[in-house]
Design goal:
The structure is a homodimer.
Chain A (H helix, E strand, L loop, with lengths): L2 E6 L4 H7 L2 H7 L3 E6 L3 H6 L6 H4 L1 H18 L14 H11 L4 H14 L7 H10 L4 H8 L2 H17 L6 E3 L5 E3 L4 H10 L5
Parallel strand pairs in A: 1-2
Antiparallel strand pairs in A: 1-3, 3-4
Helix pairs in contact in A: 6-7, 6-9, 6-10, 8-9
Amino acid sequence: MATLNFWFEFASTYSYLSAMRISDLAARQGIAIAWHPFLLGPIFKTMGWDTSPFNIYRAKGRYMLRDLERLCSDRGLAFRLPDPFPQNGLMAARIALVGLGQGWGEDFSRAVYHAEFAEGKNIADTDLLGGLIAQQGLVADEVLAQAATPETKSRLRSNTDRAIEIGVFGAPTFETEDGELFWGDDRLEQALRWARRIPAKR
Amino acid sequence: MATLNFWFEFASTYSYLSAMRISDLAARQGIAIAWHPFLLGPIFKTMGWDTSPFNIYRAKGRYMLRDLERLCSDRGLAFRLPDPFPQNGLMAARIALVGLGQGWGEDFSRAVYHAEFAEGKNIADTDLLGGLIAQQGLVADEVLAQAATPETKSRLRSNTDRAIEIGVFGAPTFETEDGELFWGDDRLEQALRWARRIPAKR
């Protein structure tokens, strides 16, 4: 089974769009998805930005909002921009990393995106995150402790380093096994087609 | 017949993609396309950029090249990045404005894009532009003189001012009659769908 790497950042509106549809779309095509949370902050810093480019370039930011409204409306998804935007997704990303190693990371990630962009909630809030962890049938305090270990922190840093190394500059980015990058929710179909065409390894 | 405004810049790789397919696509759907050349330079200046963001942000520039290669290959279009990139499209835009008022502007614009991005030629070169004008069955020197009048220059400036006014920050941008903007070649289908849904004016 071919695997497509899904590089996502919790603060990213377009990652929300992809997170909500990638699993179903990939399953129908027999493609496995490997979820990789990472942080855009360090990447934006190398570009000279201290916040989202949607805040720095106002016309682009206004456009993004309208684009998201239209796309979410077409797809039957709620959309509400959280305040502040962008949200701090650090803790959510660490928890997702823990969950992805234990089989509940994808459901948790979708729940984070829903809270953030359908309900406009603050995903840096420990109580909110604890509630989403509990929804997975887990003990929040235990998971929050695992998410705060040096090992988890280091794994998230490694993910971000790896993203930079392969050339990621925005989210979502889809990476095929033969090293092709596809940037943006609007490239998801093309990325899946590409992944399907890669000859299976023996 | 609904009209979709097509805002394009000759230096823009993604405008090339749209210019080569928008007329056929729109005709099949009964949509008229109004071609509007404008300059991204003044807009980029307001964003603090003195060249294409693809030059400033290298990972993004590398990605754009690969993205274009893949998309052009899928569409049976040649692709060759001109040197230097971005090209200076000022003169081409002025000529296109003259041509759009005389019925040959769309063919000329496609010929410019082909020379620039299929053949990698320098579109700031007067001889090249003269040749493309002659291909339209016109006398190059006469058209070049019309393109250099204060009136033509002022019309191009007005186009760019208008683009800024409606919120354009990149090219191509598609603008519907009810004021929706769609940015990027990958939004062309969506823009046409939107244009088709607008109720006809009485």
